[in-house]
Structures are given as structure tokens and as C-alpha cells.
Predict the structure.
Amino acid sequence: MFKRISLPYDYDALEPYIDATTVEVHYEKHHKTYTEKFNDLVRGVQSLKGMTAEGILMNLDSAPDDLRDGLRNNGGGHYNHNLYFESMTSGGNPPTGRLKEAITDRFGRLGTLEDELFQAATAKVFGSGWAWLILSDGKLDIAISPNQDSPLQNGNPNLLLPVDMWEHAYYLQYKQAKTDYVKAYFRVVNWEIVAKRLERAEQA
Ligand code: MN3
């Protein structure tokens, strides 16, 4: 049984950057639906028993043909949103330690990382999709993916920070102004969590 993470903050904790209605609808409706549909698809399929969501999404080729698209979309929606909601905290916090060092090595400064991730999210993702900070070949990198895909489908499990670019992530508050949404998202990023993901990725 796949579960959503418990939201680690109140609905209004990310205001004014992400408002309470957006968080509530996104978590209680969209995220809930992806997770329920994913569980419905996986339930009773012997070959998927005991697999993690990550494992299923990294091995879609071996999934039953009639379930593959559903697993990809709903499993991706489930997995990506667990990462996304865990990636925010009230008021945000700054990168420290090894993460800060990795950011300096690759981007020079946090602002440059944010600029590149912003460009990817707002200019390269067309329609619904995601932008990502990932670890790739031992280095921080930026990636994008359509729909509910992620770098998992390219064999890379080292997802460090997601940016949800589906309209449902911002439309209630920002309407079409997705650039304002991405700037606001950067104000609530929980870099402590990103640092933990980097640590795990570098140990793997
Ligand atoms: Mn979403």
C-alpha cells in the first residue's frame, strides 16, 4: 500500500508564497487521487508485489502492458508529489554544509542554480511537467520531464529537488503567472531535505 507523506506543515504554512487553498487542493485532491489510482493499479498484480514506487517507475518495461501507462502516470504522480510536498517548509531555509559546497562547485552560487532551474521550469517545460535538480554522474544538474515522468525513467534515482509545473500547482493563486509561482516556490524550499537527499545519493 503506497501512502502519501503526511504533510509536514499546515495548509497555510507556506503563505504568502503558496496559499492555503493551493496546498489543500493540491495535496488533498490531486496527490490523493494519484496515490489512490496507483494503489488500485498495483493491487493484485503478482509481479509488482513488494516493489517500491521507485522500483516500479524505474522498471516500467517489465510492467504488464495494459497497466504501463497508468502506472507511469499515477505512480509518477504519487512519487513526485511526495518529493514535492516534502521539499517545502514555512519560510524556507538555506543550503548548508556539503550541499552548499556542491552548489558552489557546480553553479558558483545559489542564485545561479535558481536562475537555471527557473529557466528550465518556465521556458523548457511545455505544458504539464516538472523541472528537477538532480545528481547526475556525481554532479548537480538540471533536468525536465513531461507529464508525471521524472529522471527515474532515464535510470536516475537521484532526484534532489522537484518543481511542479502543472497548472494545478499555481493556477488558483497565480493564474497564468507561472514565473511568479516559481520565484515564490524558491522562497519556501527546504534545503535541509535536499541536503539529506544529496547525502543519500552520494552514498549510493
Ligand atoms: Mn502537482
